[in-house]
Every structure is written in structure tokens, then in C-alpha cells.
């Protein structure tokens, strides 16, 4: 399984929200088609067709668990996991 698939799997499983690397979560949102804007340590992600705005900040090198949960909810709500199936 490729690292990008492992990150998506970890986020969707929801068993290790406190152990998701911040850069991995940013990369996942990028691959899912979100546009990133940075204001200080706030990384703001938007995407056409998605009403929610995702605002994530690092806690040391990890993503904050409640923000991983918000990302998971958006992925499920808009069925975005199906969009991340690039050929290897």
C-alpha cells in the first residue's frame, strides 16, 4: 500500500487521530483537490463543491485530533475518498 493510501486509510479509520503527521494531512487534502491558503500557522483549505472550509494548524509535527475528525467528516459527507484513486 502506498504511503498516500495509508494516510487516507488512517484518517478514515479514525483509530489514531492523534498520530497523523501534519504534512501527511496537508498532502492528503491536496490530493483530494483542495486549494491551500496559509495565514500564519493556519492552513485553510477550500474546494469547489464543498461548503465547509477546513482550517488546520500543526501541534508540533502532528495534526490536531479534532481537525483530523473534521477532515474525515468532510471526506465522508462528500464521498471524496473515491476521488483519490490515481493509477500508480
Written account of the structure:
The protein is an alpha+beta fold and 88 residues long. Helix content is 39%, strand content 25%. It is built from three helices and five strands. The strands form two sheets. It has a three-stranded antiparallel sheet with strand order 1-2-3, covered by helices on one side. A two-stranded antiparallel ribbon has the order 4-5. Mean pLDDT is 91; it is low at 83-88.
What structural class do helix, strand and pairing data support? alpha+beta
Poorly predicted tracts of residues: 83-88
- The span between the termini is 11 Å
| Rg, Å, rounded | 12 Å
Shape: globular
**How are the strands of the biggest sheet laid out side by side?**
1-2-3
Q: Give the overall pLDDT as a whole number.
A: 91
Give the helices and strands as they follow along the chain. HHEEEEEH
Strand content: 25-35%
Summarize the main sheet: 3 strands, antiparallel
- Strand runs, count: 5
Number of helices: 3
